[in-house]
Predict the structure.
Amino acid sequence: MEVRVRYAPSPTGLQHIGGIRTALFNYFFARANGGKFILRVEDTDRERYSDESLEDLYSTLEWLGIKWDEGPVVGGPCGPYIQSERFDLYKKYAEELVEKGKAYYCFCTPERLEEVRKQQVESKSEYQGYDRHCAHLSDSEIKEYLRQGIKPVIRLRVPTEGKTTFHDILMGDITRRNRDVSPDPILLKSDGFPTYHLANVVDDHLMGITHIMRAQEWIPSGPLHVLLYEAFGWEIPQYCHLPMVMGKDGQKLSKRHGSTAVRDFRAKGYLPEAIINYVTLVGWSLDGSTEFFSKEELEKCFTMEGIHKAPAVFDYKKLDWFNGQYIRQADDSRLASLITPYLQEAGYVKNPLSAEDADLISKIVPPVKERMKVLSDVVPLTAFLFEDKPVTDKAVYVAKGSDEEKTGEALQRGSDILLSGLKNGEKEESIEEKLTALSQELGIKVNGVFQPIRVAITNSTVSLPLFDSIRLLGIDETEKRLMRAVKLFEEN
RNA sequence: GUCUCCCUCGUCUAGUGGUUAGGACAUCGGGUUUUCAUCCCGACAACGCGGGUUCGAUCCCCGCGGGAGAUGCCA
């Protein structure tokens, strides 16, 4: 039988790490097994729905290069794939359950339910949930409520006796007493929209989903879903509950742990291959030692057996490391186009790019690629090329083991050596040798000469390599900045 | 409160009834280097606890402890 899996997010927020991890696992499982990956939009909560979320879903998957075989936009034999467009369907199925006696109309007001809940909490009752107030209304009572214009919800009749077991590929059998299953959950809301439970089960069945891979937070509702399948008389799919993604404090990963929206990672300059690689490794491993996986490799080697049971903490530092690795592996022309938007946003280069800017950017890439963890790092790294904020605190120019006087001399004579050398087309190694000789003569470390020069040219103690910086800056600007620094030390 | 699930270095993980319990990130130290970074080398660091079963348990069983999730006209 063909494997059919789905990613079924609800467009009520931006795509986050946890969601995308679920999408990836489903996608890779489908690919590795020659099956189909289906995207379904579960937009049944019209209070929290937003167009922005839906657009974010599409753009995020596109950015990651995750293509769905069936779903919105691309269509497919089980469409539509957006639940709000399947509106009538759920009502039909809910009413079918009512007719079978497996579900019933409930006319309780939200206020009453709130009151019931409150009392249960206050009395510390063991019994939590709906009190089944409407479970046994007579036909005439129902008619009377309807005549009054009260919009009912439809609730599933959960058995009070017995227990329900479902099998999870990872966890094994999970059993719950029926009396512990959330009593009589709402299937169809009073606005006619289905709740998650109904829509999810109906669609998974209608769309021929074979494996349900979703986060472990859904385990408790597993028995409920099984009850639903049984009420309909449908075959139950395979379950595989994925370990949750946690924050540093062990709680479910959320905004307060840092960025969780994939869009934010993208904006900061994470590469899609780094996100895919790292996120897939959160709760999954192939052999415990292989770390680097391309998307294409994962499409071949992903297995359910490699999924871990325990929740996993999302390590931002390790993501950074992966990203740095991928940046260093990327080829220079790609990196040039990747860093361009950051330089444009900083106002350093124009949009569209001039020919000179494009040329400069291509020269920036090699020295910068060894130093970036995220693409946005390019801005502080190259700021000295586009804006000139001279360091006026002399102490910054003074290297360890040197002093102000020696630094002033190193700066003056070093500038001389450097500038004349550059103008005469001398080799960098040769200039370097002379500068080193100067440091020996002054009785200071090599850096005692290089640091003041570097600070003068790049306005920072931390910078790209000196000769790279000079090449990017140009000889005239270099000279101007050096002379300015020399002057700073001449003043007293 | 009730229910369900989980438990190997700080973090992600590999692993086995007998191993020096392996790898990676992070951290620390060293080397390369004009700074930073890269790169290389090294170090630190784990089987939650208590009972069993066994010649022997990290691994099997039970209990405890800890953590998480669920308990909505949200998904």
About this structure: The first helix of chain A runs from residue 17 to 32.
